[in-house]
Amino acid sequence: MPEKKPLEKQAGHSLIVIRLIAVFKFLKAASLLIVGVIILRMIRSNHSMHETLLNFVNDLRLDENNHFIHGLLEKTLGIGIKTLRLLSTGTLIYSILFFTEGVGLWFDQGWAEVMTVITTAGFIPLEIWEIHRDPTAVRIIIFTINIALLVYILLRLRWRHHAKKEGVNLKENPVGVGH
Q: pTM to 2 decimals?
């Protein structure tokens, strides 16, 4: 009978990879926090999103006739205060969510992996729709990374399930069976 591989070898258990994912979550949380705060400042200063973005483009001396920048400026024309409040609330909530996931992943917690699977899988239909509507290399790359992340975390959850089934206390023996 062939020797059974330890569970951590079967699922590719790697604290380095999970911590890289946690750092990615921290970066997303920080980015959303910054966006949320900027939107709150726009609301307080009574500037429109369009006006704020146009000032930003001018400060950086970007070409406002650039296809990407022009499209972005056009999309911000009709955004009112009520929509800005909703955007701010949404970005701040997602910032907290991603920060929570990051902390849990950093400390190798199973609940954070479940949370990451739910949030990542929840965005997949939207990502597919966005790619279908307007396929770009960036959207396809982000979608591919999210699918790879989802598969990896699902493998880790499977590894945790098998370790638990074999009676391994992952708190005492975090690398699983066989070590």
A: 0.73
